[in-house]
Amino acid sequence: MDKKRLYRELAVLDDRGIKLFERCGYGPAIIDDSDDKEILLYLCEQQIAEKGFLDDFSIRGEYYTLYENEIKSEDFEKYRKKASWVWKCKYWCDEMYDYFPKSVLLKLVNKRMHMSENELTEIFRKFPVTSFNDQEYGDWIIPWTYVPDYDDITSNIESQKEAVFYIPVVGEIEEFFEKGYLFSRKSCQNMYNFLLRYIGDEDEAREMCFEIWLNLSVDDLFDNTIKDVISRYPAMKSKKIELTSYVLKFYENMNTSEYNGYSIAYARRKGMRGKGKHRIRCGFME
What is the CATH class of 75-167? Predict the structure, then answer.
């Protein structure tokens, strides 16, 4: 990996990420926090970090030396602050919007820091090439998770031109990037508290919440989700009706790509039309 590529990879790390990178730079460090581990596992995927047998992580020596001697600087820090925030905003857009115009991404970015669309585009084009393969199509962006049928790109963009996009607040962008879903939502907290009574372990209950969100957002198979939870925790079988009620409220109030980030409950109240399950994503139909 040369300096240019390492610069791009490290520039998308937020303050927490770059501190973890530096913490592991001088030798193996034991990492207990699950969210910290996810950051370092990302660096392992890029072959920048290495994981030991005891949940210890270290940065490959040649890359940390390159960072210390040729990358770390005030200019890099200024750029990293911007690039890492755009990276987080892009993650929300990728997951919640399907095809989206750059102007919408800019609205999210400007929730925290103001920049022009030209500056945004320049940052976008310098994102890591190995871990990021979104495509520009004029003023639009097609997330890498969608395998586009090029014959349908124009019609798919046309269908999104009049779409209304939910614009999250800064806290939602941060939480979604860190957790993969919005755990702090009231409907999720209520479901979590119910699950915790039967699961007993806080981390496991939170993981179950994430799995429920993932199953519902990917497959939209509500009945199968309930069956899966009960099969894993048989004690809930007698509480199936109550479990169903909590999961249903969570499902109706979770942000969904079907309505460009709006919840099903909100879309129903406003009479919004969904996009339908029409694109191939990561090998399955959405």
Answer: mainly alpha
Model pLDDT for residues 46-81, shown as the tens digit of each residue? 999 999 988 899 999 999 999 999 999 999 999 999
Contact 51, 40 (CB under 8 A): yes
**Order of strands across the sheet that contains 49-51:** 29-30, 56-59, 49-51
Judge whether 284 and 150 are in contact, CB under 8 Å. Answer: no
Instruction: Supply the pTM of this predicted model.
Output: 0.89
Closest CA to 255 of 87, 93, 85: 93
Distant-in-sequence, close-in-space partners of 30: CB < 8 Å, separation ≥ 6? 54, 55, 56
Condensed to tens digits (0 to 9), the pLDDT of residues 114-144 reads: 999 999 999 999 998 766 667 888 899 887 7
Return d(Cα 4, Cα 36) in angstroms, integer.
25
Amino acid at 204: E
Q: Where are the domains of the chain?
A: 3-72, 75-167, 183-254
> Look-up: residue for tokens 């508290």?
193
Element (H, E) at 142: strand 140-142
Q: How far apart are CA 29 and CA 55, in angstroms?
A: 8
**CB contact at 8 A, 147 and 284:** no
How far is Cα 78 from Cα 123, in angstroms, rounded to an integer?
Answer: 12
Instruction: Give the residue carrying structure tokens 């406003």.
Output: 270
Orientation angle between helical segments 74-97 and 102-109, nearest 10 degrees:
120
